[in-house]
């Protein structure tokens, strides 16, 4: 059972902390536990309940009316909204799918958004905020490793599915190589880079997760890529990270080096001159699309 602070609840539900306090005081929506210093703490059940209330409120139900509803009636109304293809409450639906390990709700919600926006906009506008929310839930031990893996693999499958729909470029010159360094398995960002580059017609060579350095060098020698892209999310020693790119720059002098992820951002100043940071999809494409 997780203990959320009101700021965590604000991030996860999108409801302002001030609004939550008003709902509690005026309508008795929740009665959160309090610490000895009177700080509000919320449970997983409180989070799920507020997500449902947020859905109803955004769908035109007044908060005063919601406060009078029985739990079964709230669940019935929420189910109708969850199954609706005409109403966009994407983030709430995704969080509910995570909490309930609901593959159908997650995949249907995501596909609706992709059909409307395309994967590129969906990733930046919906999936990145969703993954940020998952990060908060990890910090407060609200979700298990199994839940995180469940959702991550669904996202991974969807991106791969969208990549499979793209044409394989016929021009094999100037390939772009993508890989994750050894011991890094967080593939979602790198797959999205692959999708973006393929959508612009670039020939990419995707090497996937946890690639040993000697295998990377072997592939560089055979393919001679014009650019090499990696993503670094797993916590790593700064000295190792800097020495890794110093060595790679020497071993692949004819390739441009690009990298994204939290570890690159954290040590961006020290890495200047060795690797170009990928900050977002726009910065990635700016280096390849004139």
Task: Write structural notes for this entry.
The chain is an alpha/beta fold and 290 residues long. The chain has 15 helices and seven strands. The chain has three domains: 1-87, Multidrug-efflux Transporter Regulator, Chain: A, Domain 2; 93-165, Methyltransferase, Methionine Synthase (B12-binding Domains), Chain A, domain 1; 176-286, Rossmann fold, CATH 3.40.50.280.
List the helices and strands and how they pair.
Elements: H1 6-13, H2 17-27, E1 33-34, E2 40-41, H3 44-58, H4 63-66, H5 71-82, H6 90-99, H7 103-117, H8 119-139, H9 145-164, E3 176-179, H10 188-199, E4 204-206, H11 213-223, E5 227-231, H12 238-251, E6 256-260, H13 262-266, H14 268-271, E7 276-278, H15 281-286
Parallel strand pairs: 3-4, 3-5, 5-6, 6-7
Antiparallel strand pairs: 1-2
Helix pairs in contact: 3-5, 3-6, 6-7, 6-8, 7-8, 9-10
**CATH superfamily assignment of the largest domain?**
Cobalamin-binding domain
Question: How much strand?
Answer: 5-15%
Named at the architecture level, the CATH assignment of the largest domain is 3-Layer(aba) Sandwich
**Rg, nearest Å:** 22 Å
**DSSP summary, beta strand count:** 7
Question: What are the low-pLDDT stretches, counting only 5+ consecutive residues below 50?
Answer: none
Number of helices: 15
Could you tell me the mean pLDDT? 87
**Percent in helix:** 55-70%
The helix-strand sequence is HHEEHHHHHHHEHEHEHEHHEH
Task: Note the gap between the termini.
Answer: 51 Å
CATH fold title of the largest domain: Rossmann fold
Number of domains: 3
Give the C-level CATH assignment of the largest domain.
Alpha Beta
Biggest beta-sheet profile? 5 strands, parallel
Spatially, the strands of the biggest sheet line up as 4-3-5-6-7
The geometry reads as: elongated
Label the structural class. alpha/beta
